[in-house]
Write a structure and sequence with these properties.
Elements: H1 4-18, H2 22-27, E1 34-36, E2 42-46, H3 51-56, H4 63-74, E3 83-86, H5 100-117, E4 121-125, H6 127-133, H7 139-142, E5 147-149, E6 152-157, H8 160-165, H9 167-177, H10 180-190
Parallel strand pairs: 2-3, 2-4, 4-6
Antiparallel strand pairs: 1-3, 5-6
Length: 191
């Protein structure tokens, strides 16, 4: 039987060979696929790699990643127990937001990643990942509130980077993050 890790490795290789966004790839150092445990109950999805991620080949390793790690610790999770990825797998030039067509081109790969992992909870970090997975919602209105869509539970949260630029946002994010273990327990109880 093929393991989840093997399937993910094959998917990663397929993205490289399919080359869905040649213009993004040409400006990036490498594909930033994911990090963490393929057996994870929780998957975190950001928007796109930044400079540090592009250099190291892992998502969320810069300042936003450090804050994410702190919040994980607060709720008793370790990075090796979760799975973390971005919608767009190549760094956009000058850290600009990913464009709608770039997100669209990477969405089938993201869906396949999620199908392989089959998490209990998908945490959308920021409006870009939320827009792709839960279209039509406003993050300012739904952050911290679990949403069930096509049988999957999602939790939209502000992106950790938002707390780096806005101190008031930090507590909101910490409070929303604290709900993750409670939401997981509810999912387990209801399944």
């Amino acid at each position: 039987m093929t393991s989840k890790q093997q399937l993910l490795d094959e998917l990663k290789a397929r993205i490289v060979s399919d080359d869905p966004t040649p213009e993004l790839r040409s400006g990036a150092t490498q594909l930033v696929f994911a990090d963490g445990n393929p057996e994870a109950e929780v998957v975190f999805i950001g928007e796109a790699p930044g400079k540090n991620e592009d250099e190291q080949g892992k998502p969320f390793v810069g300042a936003a990643g450090k804050f994410l790690n702190e919040m994980l610790e607060m709720i008793g999770l370790k990075r090796e127990n979760i799975y973390i990825t971005n919608i767009v797998k190549y760094r956009p030039p000058n850290n600009r937001d990913p464009l709608p067509d770039e997100k669209e081109k990477f969405l089938p790969y993201l869906q396949e990643q999620l199908d392989i992992i089959q998490p209990k909870l998908i945490v959308c970090l920021g409006r870009h990942s939320m827009d792709v997975l839960l279209p039509g919602l406003k993050i300012s209105q739904v952050h911290g509130q679990p949403k069930r869509y096509n049988g999957q539970v999602y939790l939209p949260l502000f992106h950790p980077a938002a707390a780096l630029y806005n101190v008031d946002m930090r507590q909101t994010l910490v409070d929303d993050f604290a709900r993750i273990p409670i939401i997981l327990k509810k999912i387990e109880t209801n399944s």
